[in-house]
């Protein structure tokens, strides 16, 4: 994931990040289901989504622990 994308994620508040995470999880489920039944045109999208979810969770956890000077943002 590019540093610009990470910076963009860090600028969002916690509730936006949680919403994005849920939306990506839903998209990931749909892609996995689709890949098992009919195949995908872009199978690398699954990997991209997994990594984006991981980045979001990492940012939320850093804020929770106060790492990198990032306090939880409401």
Summarize the structure.
The chain contains three helices and no strands. The protein has helices at residues 3-10, 14-37, 44-65. 3% of the residues are buried.
Provide structural commentary.
It is a single chain. This protein has helices at 3-10, 14-37, 44-65. The protein is mainly α and 74 residues long. The protein has one domain: Helix Hairpins. The longest helix is centred in the middle third of the chain and has 24 residues, at 14-37. It is elongated.
Main attributes?
elongated, Helix Hairpins, 74 residues
Q: What is the strand content?
A: under 5%
Radius of gyration: 14 Å
Shape summary: elongated
What share of the residues lie within helices? over 70%
By oligomeric state, this entry counts as single chain
List the helices and strands and how they pair.
Layout: H1 3-10, H2 14-37, H3 44-65
Helix pairs in contact: 2-3
């Amino acid at each position: 994931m590019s540093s610009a994308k990470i910076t963009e994620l860090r600028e969002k508040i916690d509730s936006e990040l949680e919403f994005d995470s849920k939306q990506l999880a839903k998209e990931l489920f749909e892609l996995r289901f689709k890949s098992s039944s009919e195949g995908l045109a872009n199978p690398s999208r699954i990997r991209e989504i997994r990594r984006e979810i991981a980045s979001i969770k990492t940012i939320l956890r850093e804020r929770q622990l106060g790492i990198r000077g990032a306090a939880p943002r409401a």
